[in-house]
Amino acid sequence: MLTLTLPEARPQIKAAANEVLLVTNADLRESANTRCWPVQQKFEARLQEILVTRFGWRMRRAHPVKRDLGHGFISTQREGSDVFAGLDPDAPVIVLLTAWQYSHHLAPSLVHHRGPILLLANFEGTWPGLVGMLCLAGTLTGLGKRYARLWSADFDDAYFYRGLESWLKTGEIAHDTGYLHAVDAAHAVLDSPDGRIGAEVGRYSLRHKEIIGLFDSFCMGMINGVFPQKALADIGMPLEGLSQSDLLAEMALVPDALREQCLAWYEQRGMKFHFGTDPATELTRGQVLEQCAMLIAMGRFVERFGLSAVGVQYQQGLARCCAASDFAEGAIGNAERFPIPAPDGGVVRPGKAVPCVNEVDMGTAIPQTMLWRLLDSLGLPAETTLHDIRWGSEFEGTFYWDLEISGAVPFAHLKGGIAGAAGYRQSPMYFPMGGSTITGQGKAGRFLWARAHYEGTQVVMHVGTGHAVELPAAEFERRRRATSWEWPLLNCVLDGVSRDQLMAGHQSNHITIAYVDEAAIDGVLRAFVAQALTQNMRTLVAGAAFGVL
Question: Are residues 196 and 59 in the same domain?
Answer without folding.
Answer: no
